[in-house]
Design brief:
- The protein is mostly helical and 504 residues long.
- The protein has helices spanning 6-11, 39-60, 65-72, 76-92, 94-104, 106-126, 130-158, 163-193, 198-201, 203-217, 233-256, 261-284, 298-328, 333-339, 341-361, 363-381, 390-416, 425-460, 465-494.
- The longest helix is centred in the last third of the chain and has 36 residues, at 425-460.
């Protein structure tokens, strides 16, 4: 188990009375009264609902972009920033959101993030020009950056370590994953039947119910806050700017190429410089934003890497399969969205059996099965033909991948926070959520750039468009399979074999 900076240890002698699993210097083992409090399961529903809302909004916008562009008269660059502004603020402020949850209180940080996200959603729906929509999307990203790590740390600190926490995180992962999958479908369905503005208005009831539920169920329960320390403002500024620059460079690879000086190379260099400065600041800070000793904890280091690789595979599959459905099989945008529905359904169905296996044997065998299954699904996709059938050539791979991605996601979430002290659960959750965002951005940027470059090369050589796209997509699937191999190696060698680690 890791220890914090000596100055931080002094502060953590304050009794920990958050949503209740122990003392401030403990590991959240669940010795508090929450172990017998039936409200904790209802609290999980409302917290997971908020995370569902955030992930729904991550994907729901994609299919609505053509309608947004037409209605607002926006150019291609402005429309790109409707997506990019959200990603930049979400990824860039993630660590600050996690540390704020530890310092200011998890419930208060969650409510701040949920209210900001909901209000920003209303602004998005009311936007009359692209500039206001981009600004509102940035505010949404800020709200998500505070909501997500606070929500996850509420789960990990409310439920005692062991069977209950494993089950709670499995339910959390299932509902959150469903949000991302349904977003693809909802974006096309809502835009076609109502208006693109309703993809933002739909967040209002979700946000209101989540806020009301958390306020009601946490009434009378004091919120934890680490007090008496000076905020690490220098660390917050450098890491936020560094992560934002990194995400900016990644999202621009697809459109401008990896060698573009203004859009990729310069922001990437700035990101490296800022993140290096952040590490120096954190080594010297009396109470750092990100205690570097956390990464000496094998569980968090392994889980962070697993989150990066798993999300890279998942995002790559969604991107490449979308193009295969539309460019090769000729599906409409809405039909393509519905084609992904089985992936989300099977992820829900596999949650309960995967959780039972984890209770008996620990996270390692579930992660191994998930990593091996995802590699199998990707290898099937590398063989997808030009005149393929959805039922024969795509659905089997999507079913395997839906189950496999869930079997990868649940174990790393549980294992990642298993050895983290109670008073650092917020920042640990922030690290895991940030790892997911960075992995998804890296995965899409890598496979998209490679696939589109190969497609362009084939088109230049006068290959028919359908075959050129298929050749590029096959390359993308092979690269995703390479990432899948790294994920399998992480599962083999990163998680301990000893049965004592079977629960978190």
């Amino acid at each position: 188990m890791t220890t914090d900076h000596p100055a931080a240890r002094t502060q953590d002698r304050t009794p920990d009375t958050d949503t209740g699993t122990g003392t401030g210097t403990g590991t959240g083992t669940g010795t508090g009264t929450d172990a017998a409090d039936p409200r904790r399961w209802r609290l999980l529903v409302f917290v997971a609902l908020a995370q569902f809302m955030v992930l729904l909004d991550t994907t729901v916008v994609n299919l609505a972009l053509p309608a947004v562009q037409s209605d607002l008269g926006a150019g291609p660059t402005a429309i790109e920033w409707v997506l990019t502004s959200y990603i930049l603020c979400f990824g860039g402020l993630m660590l600050l959101g996690g540390r704020t949850a530890d310092r200011w209180g998890r419930r208060r940080t969650f409510l701040l993030g949920a209210l900001l996200f909901t209000a920003a959603s209303l602004l998005c729906g009311l936007s009359r020009d692209a500039g206001l929509l981009i600004a509102a999307r940035a505010l949404q990203g800020c709200g998500a950056a505070f909501l997500s790590p606070a929500a996850m740390s509420l789960v990990t600190t409310t439920f005692p370590r062991g069977r209950e926490r494993t089950t709670a995180l499995a339910v959390w992962a299932a509902l959150a994953g469903l949000g991302g999958t349904l977003g693809v479908i909802a974006g096309g369905l809502i835009t076609d039947s109502l208006s693109w503005r309703w993809i933002f208005y739909i967040n209002l009831p979700f946000g209101a119910v989540a806020v009301a539920g958390v306020l009601l169920l946490s009434r009378g329960r004091p919120d934890t806050a680490v007090r008496g320390s000076r905020p690490d403002l220098a660390g917050a500024v450098t890491v936020t700017a560094g992560l934002a620059a990194l995400v900016y460079a990644i999202v621009n690879i697809q459109d401008h190429g990896a060698a573009s000086p203004p859009y990729v190379l310069a922001p990437a260099a700035a990101a490296l410089a800022l993140l290096a400065a952040f590490l120096l600041i954190e080594r010297r800070a009396a109470d750092p934003l990100l205690p570097l000793q956390l990464f000496a904890t094998r569980s968090l280091a392994t889980a962070g890497l697993g989150r990066v690789l798993t999300s890279a595979v998942q995002a790559s599959v969604l991107f490449l399969c979308s193009y295969y459905l539309q460019r090769t099989l000729g599906y409409s945008t809405l039909a393509s969205g519905f084609a992904f529905l089985p992936l989300g359904i099977v992820a829900i169905l596999v949650t309960a059996p995967a959780t039972r296996v984890m209770h008996r044997a620990g996270p390692r065998p579930v992660y191994l099965a998930g990593a091996a299954g995802s590699l199998l699904g990707l290898l099937l996709l590398t063989q997808a033909p030009a005149h393929g059938s959805y039922l024969l050539h795509l659905l089997p791979a999507l079913l395997i991948l839906g189950a496999s991605m869930q079997c990868c996601g649940i174990p790393v979430n549980v294992h990642g926070v298993s050895d983290i002290p109670h008073h650092q659960q917020g920042i640990a959750s922030g690290v895991l959520v940030a790892a997911f965002q960075v992995g998804a951005s890296l995965g899409v940027a890598t496979v998209a750039t490679s696939a589109l470059t190969r497609t362009t090369s084939e088109l230049t050589a006068h290959t028919t468009p359908a075959l050129a796209w298929l050749d590029g997509l096959h390359l993308g699937f092979w690269i995703a399979a390479g990432i899948g191999v790294l994920n399998l190696l992480t599962a083999c060698f990163g998680l301990p074999r000893h049965p004592a680690t079977r629960t978190a």
